[in-house]
Amino acid sequence: MLTAAFSEFVDPNPSAGNEFGDTVVALSTGNVVITSPYADVGGTDTGAVYLFNGATGVLISQLVGSTANDKVGEYGITELSTGNYVVRSPFWDNGSEAEAGAVTFGNGTTGASGVVSAANSLVGSNSSSYVGFHGVTALTNGNYVVISASWSNGSFFSVGAVTFGDGITGVSGVVSAANSLVGSTGSDNVGLYGVTALANGNYVVNSYAWENGAVANAGAVTFGNGMTGVSGVVSATNSLVGSTESDLVGEDGITELSSGNYLVRSPFWDNGSETDAGAVTFGNGTTGVSGRLTSNNSVTGVLDLDISPGLVQDNINNTFFIRSQDQKTFRVGSQTDGFSPLSLNAISDVMLNENASEQIVNLVGISASGPDPNQLSVTATSSNTGLIPDPVVFYTSPDSTGSLTFTPVANQVGIATITVTVEDGGLDGDLGTTEDNGTFQRTFDVIVNTLVDIDLRVVGSPTLVESNGEIASLPANQNWVSEWSTYWVEIWMNTDSTSSQGIFSANLDLNYNTQYTSATTIEYGTGFTLNQTGSVNDLSGVVENLYSETNVNNLGISGYLLFARIQFESLVDDGVDLDTLNQTIGPYDLGFLISSPQVTVVSENPVSTDVNLFQGASIWANPFDLNDDDKINYRDLISLVGVYGAIPSESDSDYAWAADLDQSDRVDYRDLISFVGNYGKGKVNDPDVNYPSNYPEAWNNLLRVSSEPQRRIKTANLTQTEADQVLEKAIEQVSEKLTPEMSQALSGVEVKVVDLSGATLGRAVPGTIYLDVNAAGYGWFVDSNPFDHSEFAVDSQLSLIALPDSAAAGRIDLWTVILHELGHLVGYEHEAEGVMEETLAPGVRKLAEWNENSDLFFASVQDQAELLSF
């Protein structure tokens, strides 16, 4: 209501048709804002807005347009709770850009003066943007929001913009995504359907015609902070959005709850194939809600026009009710925190191989809505019962966890979608009264694949196969090669699935250690004749893109199918040097590894591949080539003659250990004869070296089991963690008694669990101890407290034997083996008795000899043995 101490305010620029007084607003400051939209101050109908002293009628400020028909102030004045005001001039021209529009902030005490421009106003930069045309919403905290639903971004008309303005300082400049919430597509009309000012000062923007990319009229509702606003392009990141054409999210409006939170009503949202099922989404009045509208974040209908546009607020109980269109079912929500979550955590897809056993899937995060406690039930169905029958659910209400089980149908492959439904008792907590029950669903896929096994084998010469490329059993793997040798790596495949109709194609890479040998030739199996590809990248150590197809059915089912074989040779830049520092010729891992395998079958069933454990292959240096020049000639002979007669264990020579070709600890006539037999050979002209019969085993001290098991024993494999723990205890046990040289030898030593050949239990090379994965078939006894020997009884002074009912009975003692290999690392050879014996029987623990001259290495073991009481 205007209150003034005088009869009228006088038009400062009187002229017929000015329409002075078209809008009159008395501000809380006591001043008065009056518009004259057709005033001719700056030209015909440029318009003017005046601020007068409400007590004296004195003019305080004058805001005017500059171009004919700017009509400044024509769309009115919005008063802010701060006492300031906002002027709307949507037809203002920005130079040559007609009707770009402007909204000007005015101070309630000093007003807004001068000509409208981007310096004092929020303006459009493109024609027909009509900034401010759709209103200014005053927020409860004194700030304001400008709605320009027809704003153009230069590329599209009517993308729309909503701009936040500070109620003390206002906002000016050109409308853009930097200062406004904007659309990105023509006719997005952001803000066209209103801005809801919440009681706490925040606001919600309704743009239900917004397009989600190519999805027309998906709709978006955006939360804005009342102190900072929201800017940028409308998206699922900052808005609640639809995902189906004509979802029209927010079409039925925004309902503010008495709690300050709000509800978004979307009666035309589509629930999958059910069009216009409808949805109501709870939004927190402090943080809002964003993301794609789904049944997980909203109450949604399941039938056409299911969710009624109406809802009922119960402010006494701080709740609200949503009814279905036929008013037979209800959902209740809290005005404070929305809908109690009827929920189930997401379930990961399950991938299986054909003829897999029974599967168990855990269900987690089960909860009900409505009263607490509420009745719950969980059911599950399969989309493909010929592959996966409907699962059996194990669940007890009101637990938050449960499980389901299923067993794939034998000899079937494919995909089945499992739908898990959680249902609660609704408002009355009674599952029997289904009208008000709530439901929630999760789905996951079960993919049953044809399994194709892939095996690697290292062979000295190509394996003979049948005409179709198959073989009944895999060839033996050659686990070591010598430095100059030529060998082949064969890749084999097979499947047990008769429904697969056999292997059709394969594609993979073969990685190798290019330092020692090089891939030189690729040959495909006789079954793989079509579309062959593959190349050798020796610089990176990979045979790349090995691919081929078959043209015969049922390959790889009744036998092992050769996919490809690759020849490896020692080329000019390859080689294995003698390690004179550590006095070793190997072994060095050849590094064979299959990567990125992809296999298809004739039936086009889904396929999974399993690259079986490769037994490994190592390469050893040629000790005859003492100077590593790839020739056995007079230079090597000179080196051998120079240490002839030496005892390597006592020699300071760098070559005595290598010239001891039979590893007898003496360079003698036997070594000379062996050398002469290979004299003149070389990697290029004659690489076939005649090695001693104990090459390469004799070059590393190998601890072997005394006898191999008469039958295969089912044993657990040794884990890396177990091996690491025992090694740590062993080093700790002996560390205080080691000489500095011994300590240096054990510095940084590590243990590796591998598959050693035959009866070998362990092997030591400088810095590393290798242990057989299952103790040559007997299994390991891993002693958690190896210092008390409680599982053993005395057999002799240097030997303990396992008690019949102990865990050590019939097993290989890991403690003994690790101490044995540590002994080798510090320079001890095999001995006739004790821990350094060459073989070890199952169920036996070996001790070191104790007397005044006992080796310091085993001093701590002696201490423990003396404490035994039997």
Automatic annotation (TrEMBL):
Name its GO BP terms in alphabetical order: polysaccharide catabolic process
For this UniProt entry, which segments traverse the membrane?
Answer: none
Gene3D superfamilies (UniProt xref): Dockerin domain
InterPro entries reported in the protein's UniProt record: Dockerin_dom_sf, DUF5650, EF_Hand_1_Ca_BS
A Pfam family per the record: DUF5650
Which protein is depicted? Answer: Dockerin domain-containing protein
Query: What is the species listed in this Swiss-Prot or TrEMBL entry?
Result: Gimesia maris
